[in-house]
Amino acid sequence: MTLEELRKQIDELDRQLVILLSQRAEYALEAGRLKVSTSLPIYEPVREKTIYENVRRENKGPLPDIELTHIFERIIDVMRALQRNELASQRNAQASAAGHEAGAQAPETGNRQ
Ligand SMILES: O=C(O)C(=O)C[C@]1(C(=O)O)C=C[C@@H](O)C=C1
């Protein structure tokens, strides 16, 4: 393949990755809502460990396991931040509606619990 053809393939895969990551984020948001409504914690390290094991099992190269795991760690960090930002927004809206501004919190930026 020429460089131009290779870049077209990369662009197409990037497009698909954006679609897949957006779908993943929708499911993570839904999981976050479910966990809040059932009083479960947002951060679930055992589940995350299972995901990293799944990723390594599927890995056929050429990416080293450790690098692929780092990519997924970053993805899940972002998912958690998304879940917590939604939660914080909901709490702010509830606090405003109830007239309790003191209960308002700034959205988080991605730290673990
Ligand atoms: O599976 C969950 O419980 C989720 O909330 C989803 C998810 C993920 O993005 O895969 C996000 C945060 C948790 O720590 C574990 C996994």
Strand-helix topology:
Layout: H1 3-37, H2 45-58, H3 65-98
Helix pairs in contact: 1-3, 2-3
The structure holds prephenic acid (PRE).
Report on the structure:
With about 110 residues, the protein is mainly α. The protein has a single domain, classed as Chorismate mutase (Chorismate Mutase Domain, subunit A). Helix content is about 75%, strand content about 0%. It contains 3 helices and no strands. The protein has helices at about 5-35, 45-60, 65-100. Helix 1 (about 5-35) packs across helix 3. The longest helix is centred in the N-terminal third of the chain and has 35 residues, at about 5-35. It is elongated and about 65 Å long. Bound molecules: prephenic acid (PRE). Prephenic acid (PRE) binds near residues 43, 44 and 47. Prephenic acid binds near residues 32, 44, 51, 76 and 80.
Task: Summarize the structure in short.
It is an enzyme of class 5 (isomerase). The chain has 113 residues and is mainly α. The chain has helices at residues 3-37, 45-58, 65-98.
Structural class: mainly alpha
Write down the CATH topology. Chorismate Mutase Domain, subunit A
Radius of gyration: 18 Å
* Structural domain count: 1
List SSEs in N-to-C order: HHH
- How would you name the oligomeric state of the polypeptide chains in this document? single chain
Q: Classify the helix fraction into a percent range.
A: over 70%
Count of β-strands: 0
CATH architecture: Up-down Bundle
CATH homologous superfamily descriptor = Chorismate mutase
